[in-house]
Amino acid sequence: MSSSDIPSNHPRALSLALRKRIEDHVETGLVAKAGPIAHGRGEAFDYLIGEQTLPCVLNDIETAAALLLKAKHPVISVNGNAAVLVPTELVALAAAIPAKLEVNVFYGRTFEREKMLAAHLMQHGAKEVLGIHTEAKVPNLHSARQHVDINGIAQADVVLVPLEDGDRTKALIDWGKKVISIDLNPFSRTARDSTINICDNIVRCVPELTKAIQLLKADSAKAEKLIAGYDKTQSTKNIIQAIQVRLNFFQ
Known about the structure:
Blueprint: H1 13-28, H2 35-48, H3 55-70, E1 74-78, H4 80-85, H5 87-96, E2 100-103, H6 111-123, E3 136-137, E4 147-148, E5 158-162, H7 166-174, E6 178-182, H8 189-193, E7 196-198, H9 202-216, H10 220-229, H11 232-249
Helix pairs in contact: 1-2, 3-9, 3-10, 5-9
């Protein structure tokens, strides 16, 4: 099935198109073979929240925007799935902050794959992409994701990690960095351990995050207030309560 085979009025048109994009880029090598599994897991949780950006998540997005704006060295970590789902949007977000983009992959890490991902982001407007040469290592992390750019994540004070694995999130936190995750599963290690988790689909979240960045640039006082008043535990409770309300509706 090609993207042109998906009727525009199909109720699952966007979901099918994104799924097809992931499948196609397994063939190109941008997405790891495990990429479709991770994408499908996210889709399942997206169903639970109604495939919408929940009102309570807007505060998480705003607070994440504030944290990125206040950072001295913000970095956006980009894996294969993120690179093919929202390449233009991630480039626009990085420019709005501004922040550095760094490719970082878990499966199939090779010098060639990192170069391909960087080239893909540059084809979508990025001026610079880090992560090709990774001289630094995240302390106490033993997966392939331990390798980071000495000019990127190694120096970062705030790291945005969309579609992340949980062990690196905790390792980055232990390394003294603040971590913003985009994870549809509120029960995952990534969501639990990150400084701020945005429980939303990356294709909806990244454009909203860019909008929030642009609005907060003119309101430094609001940005400070958002960061000071953020309650991670309450944020997680809000998501779980929203899911419970939807489940109870069908009982």
